[in-house]
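Residues determine shape. We examine one folded chain.
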Amino acid sequence: MTPESSVTSSRRPYVLALGAVALWSTVASAFKLTLQYLTPAQLLMVASVVSCLTLGTLLLLRGQLGEVRHLSRGQRWRSVWLGLLNPALYYWILLQAYDRLPAQEAQALNYTWALVLTYLAVPLLGQRLRWTDIVAGGICYGGVLVVATKGRPWSMEFADPVGTALALGSTIVWALYWIYNTRDEVNPVLRLFLNFLCSLPWIITLVVVENSPWPTTWQGWAGGAYVGMFEMGITFVLWLSALRPASNASRVSNLIFLSPFVSLLLIGRLVGEQVLASTWLGLVLIIGGLGVQRWGARSAELDG
């Protein structure tokens, strides 16, 4: 390998990761804009179908779609209940939160999922809770209070308590999904495709129960297709592709912390929300808390 190709190879994970971050940064705006034309259930249905087609096509082009035949019956049935968790339940709860809250609030609160993952891993995976996890929780949820009360945490007055509960509740579902995936040996892209495929009956049932009309506006279809292709499809593949060949995966993964801040800028520009100073402060606290959590985990790995 020439020095030039070596440099290009070392930069490739960062390019892919930045591409994923850029796309994920647009999702909060896409959610909020599309929900002007579709109900949460309708958006979930359109996006899930598009994600299925996107991931299925990618697997077909890679020659990996045939791996479905080699999965055990247990692995296939696992997709049914994992699909219920994600995308069906997770995105339905999250989109309900986006439907009720300003996009800036919903996206900031949703970033606490990594902390919830750590806390749930204690009883479910037998992991040990570190003192840095407790400190991180205090900082993160202090940020949640700042965001949800619009800069008046001492008042404990939430503009929309239900929306706030939905945004925080979605983090529990997302964390559970990843915990149940920790020992999964299926190709992650194939697993995601199967989850979305198996989620469609759940989602269609939800649309029928809600008696939601068939989407008719092109804006709704376009927004749903964008969410399905990027939030639920290609971006996930980009992120996996960035982490696998990276010589320092933790350094590459830190780029994800850019996403919520870029997202706030786009929300202000595309959605037209006035991004409050309290949202910026709360988000800094949330990301700062997650940074403390990561530092504690890395220190424990080095000491162990």
Q: What stands out?
A: The CA atoms of residues 20 and 235 lie 5 Å apart. Confidence is low (pLDDT under 50) at residues 3-7.
